[in-house]
């Protein structure tokens, strides 16, 4: 039973990764029998929110099951999991740039260092960003959030008693959201988004304790998310002029933060409702995507180069076949990097 439940997380992870690929690849308008079916692929930012919630669950679950809870043990495992596949993507991005320029290209050391130290974000959509995503690979923005969520989780878990932990997290995320209205920057942005990641932590805690998921049990934390959402509504109101600055206002400050939190609330209540319905229809819709889960991380971080910007098959006079092959090649590449190469390196480094 437990394995089947965790397989649902794997299926969602695989689905979310492939969905983001379609979000960045498919045109906004695809008409089928007069209906714009392309509209269902317009929610890429929401797919990233699913990643955050799943990540919070997995980190909490694995941390509690681990006998070794030292920082060294935790840090090394988080580091190699995130960075080893990522370095392959850095090399891929730089190699493709060299190929397109026909010579050794500028490696853009400043941006590379910004990404190595996990300070990147979408510089064209948010204010006061320290570093852009490396080589235009916009999805890397979420990795900086993930990394600092990992670090904040460990710090709080080791330094605050379990009976006070949720209270302190609530205080931190609400204060961060309030300060975000005054001056948005990397620290309060990450701390505010930690509230979304913490949904997964709360779910994992309930799962580990064998308790029942219910609206009543999650309601105290839901109030925290409601408060942050209200703050972001106010932020949108007073900073609405920014929607005139960015090219795509629905995925930019100050709208995107509100969009993320509204969807996070939907995910939280939706998951509880679906679980109480015994996940009816889940396997039929998402079950097959569990097979993509083992390489979903590399699918996510490589598709910008291997699908979205790919042109080497443009001689094929059929876009469906062309992009179908791009996606197939991306999946094969992702499997080789994440399942074969990463696992072998991991065994050498930590056994």
Description:
The protein is an all-alpha fold and 351 residues long. The protein has one domain (2-350). It contains twelve helices and two strands; from the N terminus they run αββααααααααααα. The chain has a two-stranded antiparallel sheet with strand order 1-2. Helix 1 packs antiparallel against helix 2, helix 2 (44-65) packs across helix 9 and helix 3 packs parallel to helix 11. The model has no long low-confidence stretch (mean pLDDT 93).
How would you summarize the topology of this molecule?
Elements (H helix, E strand, L loop, with lengths): L1 H24 L5 E2 L2 E2 L7 H22 L5 H31 L7 H8 L24 H19 L2 H21 L3 H24 L5 H24 L16 H22 L5 H5 L9 H13 L10 H32 L1
Helix pairs in contact: 1-2, 1-11, 2-5, 2-7, 2-9, 3-5, 3-11, 3-12, 6-7, 6-8, 7-8, 8-9, 11-12
Mean pLDDT across residues: 93
Series of secondary-structure elements, N-terminal to C-terminal: HEEHHHHHHHHHHH
Query: Which class do the helix and strand fractions yield?
Result: mainly alpha
Terminal CA distance reads 29 Å
User: Could you give a short account of the major beta sheet?
Assistant: 2 strands, antiparallel
Shape category? globular
Rg estimate, integer Å: 20 Å
Helix content bin: 55-70%
**Strand share of the residues?**
under 5%
Q: How many strands appear in the DSSP assignment?
A: 2
**Which residues sit in consecutive blocks of at least 5 with pLDDT less than 50?**
none
Number of helices, counting only DSSP H or I runs of 4 residues or more: 12
Kindly give the count of domains.
1
Assembly classification: single chain
Strand numbers in spatial order across the main sheet: 1-2
